[in-house]
Amino acid sequence: MAIRKLLSGFRDFAFVLLATVTVLFFLLRLTGDPAIVLAGEGATADQIQAIRVENGFDKPLVTQFVSTIFRLAQGDFGKSLLDGTPAMEKVLAALPATLMLAAMAITLNLIVSLPLGAWLGQSQTSRSRKPVRAFLSVLQGFPGFVIALLLINLFAASLEWLPSIGFSGPATWILPVVSVVCFLAPKLIRVVEANTWAALNANFVRTARSIGASDNVILWRHVLPNSLLGAVALIGAEIAFMLTGLVVIETIFAWPGIGWLLVQSTLNLDFPVVQAVVIVMVISVFLSNALTEAVQVILDPRIRVGARADK
Amino acid sequence: MSAVTHSDIALDVKGLRLEAVEGGRVLVPSLDLQIRRGEILGLVGESGSGKTLTCFGIAGLLPTGVRMTAGEIILDGQRIDNRSEKEWRAIRGGQIGMIFQDPLSSFNPVKTIGSILIESARRHQNLSKAEARALAIDILKSMHLPGSSACVDAYPHQLSGGQRQRAMIGLALINNPALLLADEPTTALDPTVQLQILALMRRKVSNSAGLMVTHDIAAAAAICDRLVVMLEGQIIEEGPTRTILSAPQHDFTRQLLAAAPIGTLTHGGGQ
Predict the structure, then answer these.
(1) Is residue A271 within 8 Å of residue A82, measured between CB atoms?
(2) Under an 8 A CB cutoff, do B102 and A203 touch?
(3) Cβ of A212 and B107 within 8 Å?
(4) pLDDT given for residue B267 in this prediction
(5) Cβ neighbours of B123 in A, within 8 Å
(6) How far is B212 from chain A (nearest CA, A)?
(7) Which domains does chain A possess?
(8) pLDDT band at B119; cut points 50, 70, 90
């Protein structure tokens, strides 16, 4: 049973990877001729042609595609057209920065969103919650890059409290992490709030009251596990988003992660590196989805354990 | 009928008045109830008659939007309606056990049956985790749950409706409460299971008092010693079950009796 599930998961993964690489291969070839970029300004037609031949760009597209797939299947991701370092080496060097940003952002996101969402979900009518809800609505309306630019403008440019770019110690981490959290948290808070409100009005809360449980015990021990259950899918989606969607944030803050690498490589038409980044992103998303599913199974006994036979 | 002494009375409700907070609509104008020890009282009426509100009012669990504006609730000779929320928490689950209509949604889907029984036992008795667990298994056993030691670790969805309601009765009785409140305890169950649950409740309430709220006069007749019929927040008829079944005084009571399925009206209470 478990093995069959693993196998089918692996099959899906292989299929998605192949489809992505195929689409990517042809899209990249539409973006331009890397030989011209590589040759630099003032290069002669002969020099450009020489680069084409050297990298195999002169062969028919289908031949190039087949040989690319063949090499990828053997674990050969090619070399950067810029400096000849193996493409995957470049990506793996950039990956820790992205993982670090994602880990810090998701941790802060959970620390902020779970209690705040649970608190908001406790009452639909209280006055003290109104301004918080209004602020979250406004925040949710802002795209991530606008938040990042506003934060840079305020804390780096005007107040000069924090550095705006780079990747050198905790001070440079604050603005990128806060930008990502400002973008992700409102959604998660909303979901936790809605789930908390629904769970608080569920019949099992009345049962908890009937055995004399206090409001706090009810919220933390009976309601939150249920509202967390509904939030797991979104948390998983947010993690997947961070592994692929931090391109803009990383570019704004010159954060040397895979998003930043993707943009640089695309601008340089460095096809092998772009390809390697995308493959790593596909793997990350697949892994985070699998992890989300596993957590859901662990948290929800209705999925984890079946009904008893003597029912 | 023997003389009723003060100590015989488990629950005494005097002039209970319930109003909607907004608009001040009177939902129950003034209600008097008495339940003796060992007795089960059936509170019968149609939806909206105020019977369920009365039941929740006695447990201090009125929904937001409804409040008690007059009257007294006296449990075991002690007035309880004027207690603080903290004191109420000691009463609920300790002196008052409750059973609800839908046993599936009344259990937390992500928690085991045992965990809530253990939580209740430890909240009201000075027990270690292991002692509370042993007590939970014992009480499930006494509810005739098959495989009680496995049931303690089962999730609600793994049990059948009847098993869940047995576990719910076990939860309500785990701290030997003076009063058992049951709100439509059989409405969500199959007819054959209904009778088993009613019989179980009848046996378990022998040394405490029970209040069963239901629109099903046949279910009430099966286990209740006395019936109280409510209509629009007021008691229109009350008396021993036998008397009400054989000689109903009020038109509405006759309608309720006529609506009960043929052959189901058997008085099994107080035997």
Answers:
(1) no
(2) yes
(3) no
(4) 66
(5) 211-213
(6) 16
(7) 13-73 (no CATH), 87-304 (1.10.3720.10)
(8) very high
From B160, which residue of chain A is nearest by alpha-carbon distance? A311
A203/B172 CB distance under 8 A: no
Pick the CATH number of B1-95+179-271 from 3.30.420.40, 3.30.2010.10, 3.30.2000.10, 3.40.50.300: 3.40.50.300
B106 vs A: CB within 8 A: yes
ipTM: 0.88
Find the residue in A nearest to B180 (Cα).
A210
| CA distances (Å), origin B267, targets A196, B199, B240, B246 | 45, 12, 10, 10
Candidates B110, B122, B160, partner chain A, best to mutate (most A CBs within 10 A): B110
Token digits of residue A297: 């199974």
* pLDDT tens figures, A20-69: 889 988 888 887 777 777 777 777 888 888 888 877 788 888 888 888 88
Q: What is the mean pLDDT of residues B17-35?
A: 91
Of A203, A210, A226, the CB nearest to B93: A210
User: B135 in contact with A at a CB cutoff of 8 Å?
Assistant: no
The β-bridge relationship of strands B179-183 and B78-79 is unpaired
Q: What angle do CA A55, A57, A59 make, to 5 degrees?
A: 115
Which structure tokens are listed for B80? 């309880």
Residue in chain B closest to A296 (alpha carbons) equals B110
| Domain spans, chain B | 1-95+179-271, 105-176
Residue A309's pLDDT band, with cuts at 50, 70 and 90, is: very low
Residue whose entry in the numeric block shows the structure tokens 């069959």:
A4
What is the pLDDT confidence band of residue A307, given thresholds at 50, 70 and 90?
low
SS3 at position B230: strand
Task: Determine the 3-state secondary structure of B152 from DSSP.
Answer: coil
Q: Write out chain A residues lying below 8 Å of B88, CB-based.
A: 212
Tell me the pLDDT of chain A averaged across its residues.
85
Residue of A125, A201, A203, A210 best to disrupt the B interface, most CBs of B under 10 A: A210
Q: What is the pLDDT of residue A1?
A: 57
The answer to whether residue A89 scores a pLDDT higher than 70 is yes
For residue A282, pLDDT beyond 60:
yes
Alpha carbon dihedral B94, B95, B99, B104, in 10-degree steps, equals -10
Quickly count: other Cβ atoms within 10 Å of residue A30's Cβ. 6
Whole-number pLDDT of residue A68: 85
**Within an 8 Å CB–CB cutoff, is residue B140 touching chain A?**
no
